[in-house]
Amino acid sequence: MSPPAPPLVRVRNLVRRFTLKGVLNGIDLDIRKGEFVAIxxxxxxxxxxxxxxxxxxxxxxxxxGELIVPHRLSVVFQDARLLPWRRVLDNxxxxxxxxxxxxxxxxxxxxxxxxxxxxxxxxELSGGEQQRVAxxxxxxxxxxxxxxDEPFGAxxxxxxxxxHVLLRRLSxxxxxxxxxxxxxxxxxxxxxxRVVLLEAGRIAADVAIDLPPSGPARRDRIxxxxxxxxxxLGVEIDPLEGWSEPAPERSSxxxxxxx
Amino acid sequence: MSSPTIRSPRPALVRIASLKRTTLASxxxxxxxxxxxxxxxxxxxxxxxxxPALLIGLWSIGSLxxxxxxxxxPAPWVAVTTGADLIREGRLQENLAVSATRALAGxxxxxxxxxxxxxASGLSLVGGYLIDGLVQIKRAIPILAVIPLIILxxxxxxxxxxxxxxxxVFFPIYIHTHSALRSIDLKYVELAETLKLSRWAFxxxxxxxxxxxxLMIGLRFGVTAAWxxxxxxxxxxxxxxxxYMIDLARSYAQTDVMLVGLVxxxxxxxxxxxxxxxxxxxxxxxxxxxxx
Lengths: 259, 292
Hints:
The structure holds two protein chains of two kinds. Chain A is of the alpha/beta class.
């Protein structure tokens, strides 16, 4: 693993202290162009603090360290965070100008399969649809780095699975680097190229997810990774417990509609 | 506890007996079986007319029978004919136009100053320190108590009238806009930061629409306050306006003209409130969809 190009994101000895919550005790992390990294950890381990530091949203924090971040970055929050007083399309292109902004917004909505809902109010959409609008709002800015702070945490299990398919498809098409913060081991294995496990403000493990394309070998690897991560998270259970083999991915075009 | 015969088993027996009776002689005693309805029934669509109609009815009867002295309170139809006369002479329209101009000018100035100062004090800490404290102190002084001072400063003409109305309107506008603005969820501010919105785009897309519900509440109070202030200033050395018309009628003991003036005030108050509510519905349509 020796990337020839400089990494897109470079974090060195990052320290953050809050009076309220969240602590980082010296984080070193590189994210390459187009890489999908999941930050996994229990609540309070500092994973959101890391994301907020990279997004420059931690004005109140005291800390030190080196942080190199691309200019074009975009955040998807746990709540869709749509302005309730702006229609869906206006939410997507919020802050964009130029004559083709509306057209680009329409395309982005089409990509998240919400064509035709441009003039709806956010309150008229379901939770999954709102989160898809938030995704479109991020994608329309063509980010080099997409930061996602437990974006599916508030969704029901079925919607979450569909959102996984959508996010993976979109990230394959647009190739942004993604930093996904999650506490869901399966979500991390399912989506990421690399899982970084955070424990008490330090990186406890940095594991490349090298899944064979299909077959029992893939299944065994997932179970092994699952066991490893759960163990690191201090959950002492059979790694098959609570795990259900995901159905092989079909053409998700029709599947996604009723989120 | 007067007698030991009133104990729990006995009333129960009595109730069973009475229940039997109601089923036999159907609804002879409806209160015995079914629970009494304590909530309000279904409202009639124009039920609120009943009170005013009853009042006008009593008033008409009083006037007809001579129970109400016409010098104290003329009959309702006299008010109507006087109103018609005043319109024919052109006095009513003329005075109404003057009053409405005063009220609208004061309202416009009060709204603009209120919104601008609310934005200034809500969006910057220094602005808040400078403006908010002052406004809170000034709010504690009843506006009508300041009128003598305002007369001293700007004279007793139109400027004074518009100033007093504008000041009266300013406070509800400022207070409600400011509090709505300060209660805008911080997460939208964060969003605006991550989307790298400019200061102006932030105000246009987040702050102003977020504070608009507060502004609308302020506007409803402000409009009512504007009419109140109008009544007061028009009785101070005015030479035109509805208030002047009423004051003049008082000197000649023309109770019917005074009555017409009051009806006009009521009409103005009700229509302007309806107008603000319509505006509220239009501008806050994103909210209406929530309620429906």
